[in-house]
């Protein structure tokens, strides 16, 4: 399986606002990654979700 590559991306026009709960340690890791890549937290979350859905075993 190819590793996830976080990249700069344009903002999506079609978005939905939704509240989620995530583990504190996971939040810290994602927040650190977002800061390192100079991206928004939401951008990183969306890329992680898209990667997970694209690589989901059926």
Using the alpha-carbon principal axes, give the shape. Answer: globular
Element-level helix/strand string: HH
Give the rounded overall mean pLDDT.
Answer: 91
Give the low-pLDDT segments. Answer: none
Taken as a percent bin, the fraction of beta residues is under 5%
Q: In total, how many beta strands?
A: 0
Find the structural class using helix and strand composition. mainly alpha
Main sheet? none
Summarize the amount of helix as a percent range. 40-55%
The rounded distance between the terminal residues' Cα atoms is 14 Å
Number of helices: 2
Textual characterization of the structure:
This protein is an all-alpha fold and 58 residues long. It has a domain at 24-54. The chain has two helices and no strands. The protein has helices spanning 24-37, 41-54. Helix 1 packs across helix 2 (41-54). It starts with 23 loop residues before the first helix and ends with a helix. The mean pLDDT is 91.
Topology:
Layout: H1 24-37, H2 41-54
Descriptive keywords:
0% strand; single chain; 2 helices; mainly alpha; 58 residues
Short description:
With 58 residues, the chain is mainly α. It has helices at 24-37, 41-54.
């Amino acid at each position: 399986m190819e590793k996830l590559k976080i990249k700069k991306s344009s903002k999506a026009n079609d978005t939905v606002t939704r509240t989620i709960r995530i583990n504190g340690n996971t939040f810290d890791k994602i927040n650190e990654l977002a800061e390192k890549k100079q991206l928004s937290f939401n951008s990183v979350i969306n890329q992680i979700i898209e990667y997970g859905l694209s690589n989901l075993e059926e």
